[in-house]
Task: structure prediction
Amino acid sequence: MQKLIVITGIDGAGKTTLIESLSKKVPNSIIANVWQSFGANQQLFKSKAHVYEYMRSLTPNSRVLFLAHAVRYGLEKAMKSNAETIFIDGYYFKYFGPELALGADLNFVKEIMNSFPKVNQVICIEVPIEKALERKGEFTDYECGFNAELSPKTFVDFQTKVLAQRKHFETEQWQYVDGSLTPNAILDLMLF
Result:
């Protein structure tokens, strides 16, 4: 049976970097992420900028559906592989938190959450928002809450709101790791 392992955390926590490193160290593993769906639909979205432009036009609940589809697509594609371990970049936690901060209906979000497969482990990378800010070279409007001004202040303000929404997803299954640990140290903490 495939192991589903989520790596999550706020924007700039280092999720993608960690997942890429872990997938190289863990034999017979694959990565699932939201961007696989958009890449498969290049007739609709020519770039990440086009995805964000479309997302900006949606209401929060509509974005939840759109993002749920994209997350689910990436996961289902990975699950069709022969990989023993699937590292999931962010999972729905990464996208539903911002949508709740932007006004999505919590009951609606919970109903959609219940439709997703249960995972074996959730690794949440803990970094102070200010440290995440240092890691970001530039900001997307999504990371800044679709604020017209993309700045360190709008990033910190929005990520603070997103972090407050994490309580809706956390379970005893979540394992919190220091974002300054090396991939090898984090791998030692994981359940295999």
